[in-house]
Amino acid sequence: MIGIKIEKDVSIPMRDGLKLAANIFRPEKLGKFPVIVAFTAFAKDGLWSSNSSGWGMSYEPYSPTVTGSATFEAEDPAFWINHEYVLVIVDPRGFYRSPGQIRTAELDGLVGEHAVLYQGLWARDMYDAIEWASTQEWSNGNVGMSGVSILGFSQWRAAALNPPHLKAFIPWEAMTDYHRDVMFRGGIPDTEWGKLIGRHRLTPNPAWPPPESQDPSAPAEKEEDEFLADITAPALICATWSSHGTHTRGSFRAFRKISSRQKWLYIHGRQEWAQFYTAEAQTIRKLFFDHFLKGFDDRILNIPRVRLETRETLDKYTVRHEADFPIPGTKYKKLYLDATERRLKFDKNSQPSKASYDSTSGKAVFNYAFEQDTELTGYMSLKVWVSPEEADDMDLFITLRKFDRDDNEVFFDAWLMLGRYPVAFGWLRLSHRELDKEKSTPWDPYPKHVIGLGEQVKPGEIVPCVIPILPSGTLFRKGETLRLVISGIYGGGEIANVPFGFNVSVNRGTHSIYTGGKYDSYLLVPLMPSH
To answer: Helix (H, G, I), strand (E, B), or coil: what is residue 354?
Structure first.
């Protein structure tokens, strides 16, 4: 084992004269090593502890939650220093030990998530830190980035600046649009998520005063597809079936939209942080960095671009590799809603019918029992004709669930719903039903706007809308059931004790779902090439 040399509150100069505070972990031996950089809003000195959100979950025995060696959501020094890497964990401008003012955007979160993504307000400082790290006596000049959540999504805008010494990066479960991914999913505002995040931000305690004058970077506003297209560095992106409402949508979109010639997508369906610290995940990240930061070990080049898990039960899943995502050859089929029989079926209904429910407590349920083993892996969408009978708008919460042959629900895993996660989720406020035609596909509809009033309807008016359902990968055996739940409340009222909350609803009175005849309501599902 190689000893670890730890230096705390190391100053990293920025181009305007301000100095950021960093912790540096490096091998206790002479040499020049590749460097992994991460910026965190939750304090570089904030190690995993019983106060962390993920404490007590199913980590491997040697994970940092046991060893106490890693900053929250950052790489584990106990692993990387032993493989002759240097870790640099930085407090951003105005956070914890770094001086300076925190600049946030309008409608931002408590740690400035929208400013980080949309305005790129961390990107210039991250560029400077990367270039500083490349010139240190212990550096071989090759720098990477890695980390989970904000340690991941802060990487997009920094990578888009293409720092000369950034050779590769690993955004692990990293959203790309704070409003679309978290705070206004489908136009429905989340009133509770920011409160959870705010509890984990430490009070600033700068290691030194700021300079007399500062010139922090100005907002450089860009939509997600714009800054993703600017990225050319090799990337290993982690996406998950189990983080709908935080990182799933953005991670998958980033894989599709970045310009990097060399990119990989690691997809899993379990707990966010626990998976990050597994031996398998650390091994694939090491293979990636060994090639791009150390210049040896070409095995990563022989691994197909996409690693994915297909879930069958909470504990049973299979892993395979694919050439791309969505999986080449995927066939998209329409399962039509039948409000009379409350079923999903491949044949279109000739007779119109409707299903109604109380918008504040009810739901409409549609089932499909599979006639053969069927894998649904990829994007889904729901086209549905709806009417808010007594209101001018409506919030639609979509939940897909799996039931076994005995009609018992089959749950999956996620950090925010331990052992109770359904197949997939979708959200839409009806007034935000207009799609961006250039960015939309039938299987991935893209609402044009998610903030503001949108286009309201007349009470009782029947209109169509298309709702994106976030990617998932699930195997259904013959006789098992896919259940579609449409409701005015999250999860159809069957989900409790999660950090999401939607307490500013437009719902009032009865909602109706129309099917059959001219009302071609359907669930678009991805069938694998073998089906």
So the answer is: strand
Which tokens hold the place of 469? 């359902």
Domain residue extents for the chain = 4-221, 331-527
Output the CA torsion 227→228→230→236 (10° steps): 140
Q: What is the rounded distance in angstroms from the CA atom of residue 519 to the CA atom of residue 350?
A: 10
Q: How far is CA 341 from CA 284, 356, 389, 407, in A?
A: 48, 13, 22, 17
What are the phi and psi torsion angles at 40 (to 5°)?
A: -130, 140
| 529/330 Cα distance (integer angstroms) | 5
The total number of residues written for the chain in this structure? 531
Chain centre distance of CA 101: 27
Query: Residues near 497 by Cβ (< 8 Å), separated by ≥ 6?
Result: none
- Nearest 5°: the CA angle 340, 411, 180 is 80
DSSP character string of 399-436: EEEEE-TTSPEEPB--TTSTT-B-SEEEEEEGGG--B-
pTM of the predicted structure, to 2 decimals: 0.96
Confidence at 506, pLDDT banded by 50, 70, 90: very high
Q: Which residues pair with 383 in a beta bridge?
A: 466, 522
> Does 531 score more than 50 pLDDT?
no
CA distance 19 to 17: 6
Three-state DSSP at 105 gives coil
Tokens of 298: 């070409």
Reference 246, options 180, 344, 167, 315; nearest CA is 180
Q: Considering only CA atoms, which of 469, 483, 479, 461 is closest in space to residue 363?
A: 483
Instruction: Please check whether residue 192 is in contact with residue 199, taking contact to mean a CB–CB distance below 8 angstroms.
Output: no
Dump pLDDT digits (tens) for 239-295.
999 989 999 999 999 999 999 999 999 999 998 888 999 999 999 999 999 999 999
Residues 76-80: contacts with CB within 8 Å, 24+ apart? 76/277, 76/282, 77/4, 77/6, 77/25, 78/4, 79/282, 80/25, 80/36
**Rounded-to-10 torsion of CA 510, 515, 519, 521:** 100
Strands 166-172 and 188-189: unpaired
The structure tokens listed for 28 are 């206790």
Q: CA 201 from chain center: how many Å?
A: 20
Of 76-80, 270-274, 460-464, the least confident: 270-274
Q: Tens digit of pLDDT for each residue in 315-340?
A: 999 999 999 999 999 999 999 999 99
Q: Which fold has domain 4-221?
A: Rossmann fold (3.40.50)
Q: What is the pLDDT of residue 517?
A: 95
E-state strands within 437-521: 463-476, 481-487, 510-515
* Structure tokens belonging to residue 202: 């430490």
Is the per-residue pLDDT at 171 higher than 90? yes
CB of 473 within 8 A of CB of 376?
yes
CATH class of the region 331-527: mainly beta
Most confidently predicted of 67-81, 106-120, 131-145, 490-504: 131-145
What does residue 522 show for φ and ψ, rounded to 5 degrees?
A: -155, 155
Q: Is 431 helix (H, G, I), strand (E, B) or coil?
A: helix
